């Protein structure tokens, strides 16, 4: 018998764990030709803080590396399914395909949620302003359904700026449906104000909708007058979160700084936060 015959067979190479969950699409809702939402099955071991984002993608059609993009989770941290709010881009590497998904399809989701649009990154305050443009509304759908939000702040303002009235996805939800939420409905009815603005469409007045960019309405003071608030943000009582277009986030952040608010982070909580993963 030779030494070679006595040598043990080499151990099989360990199978590398996938960095993604492969999850079933539960439903899809198309709001407009450019906006849609979808829900996917939540893994039992997946935990996140309301307001965080995660990487979303689709299996590559040719077996190559999948294309992934960061998406804010539009569900609160207690939800049994995960909801996402997306734009449609005809030639987008991901959304050109993602917009065609249907219930029963498979979506890839990263295993590590992260982000700064979380309550942990803010110090205590009395009023919370959630300012978003377009699909930047997504994290507010999460934060506004978290019971901790209402225990930490006396009033919550959800501000959504879009181009046209049809782009105000979730308008009915924030205007009425959230009041029927079994967990935070009573708190939302008493403590939440929804403030939508439209930039490129005329509509009849008087109307609950407001015309113009949110930063312009803040500068003019119309924003505060509309809400019956003293003009200006007060660093002693006001906290804010920003999500959406790069232009809005930059301008709104500068505005908040002029009122004395300071940017915070997970490591150093302060007066306002923005999601840098979405701004370059």
UniProtKB/TrEMBL annotation:
Query: Which CDD domains does the entry mention?
Result: FNR1
Q: Where is the FAD-binding FR-type domain?
A: 18-120
- Report the cofactors: FAD
**Pfam families xref list:** FAD_binding_6, NAD_binding_1
Name the residues that span the membrane.
none
> Which UniProt key words apply to this protein?
FAD, Flavoprotein, NADP, Nucleotide-binding, Oxidoreductase
Q: Which residues form a coiled coil?
A: none
The name of this protein is Ferredoxin--NADP reductase
Q: Which organism is it from?
A: Brevundimonas nasdae
Lineage, top ranks: Bacteria, Pseudomonadati, Pseudomonadota, Alphaproteobacteria, Caulobacterales
